Amino acid sequence: MTHREIFDIGVGGSGAIKQIIDILAANGEYCLIGGMAINCYCSPLYTADSDFAIASSNKDAVKAAMKEAGMKVKAGRYYMSVFIPNSKLTIHITTDERYKDFGKRAEEKMIFEEFPVKVASLEDLVKGKTWCFEDPCRKLEKRLKDQLDLVRMGTNYPELMKQLPKEIQEIMEKENSQQRGMEL
Fold first, then answer.
1. 184 vs 125: CA distance, rounded Å
2. Domain that holds residue 151
3. Whole-structure pTM over 0.85, yes or no?
4. 2 and 88, same structural domain?
5. Tally of CB atoms within 10 A around 165
6. Which of 18, 26, 125, 148 is deepest in the core (most CB within 10 A)?
């Protein structure tokens, strides 16, 4: 079974992700961020949403194109949530200024091993996940998922360890030393 088939069984809407990517690409710089982006660099984990970053100047054009495509869009000051008909899939699009240059440094990767998408660089993903992880207003379960995503990146790319939040570095160092102790 492919990643796309698994996603469609659990969430549905993988074809809509391709449609969203096409809309974003036609309306300026964009990149995939969040868990699905991390899945492009690490072994995939299940996620029921997809997160993108765009420049705030592109927000109105993107919103109009998505509505024209039959998608329901809820917009706030620094985000848009896009809901896909007949799917549990939610697309989150941030226009937060902190993410404005992520698209410039994005790398082309394959999503579901089938179609190309611009994905934030690993360094930018660490920054974005750190901002989320350190946000005291964020729900605990979201911050714990952010923590897991940071650990996944640190485990798969040890050269990023110094960029991780101190709390994550300490957890990983403790785990690594316990694992070394068990090997003796």
1. 35
2. 122-171
3. yes
4. yes
5. 16
6. 125
In tens, the pLDDT along 117-129 reads 999 999 999 999 9
Sheet with 49-54, side-by-side order of all strands: 72-75, 79-83, 90-94, 49-54, 30-33, 115-119, 107-111
Q: What is the CATH classification number for the domain harbouring 110?
A: 3.30.460.40
Residue of 97, 91, 81, 3 whose CA lies nearest to 42: 3
Length of the chain: 184
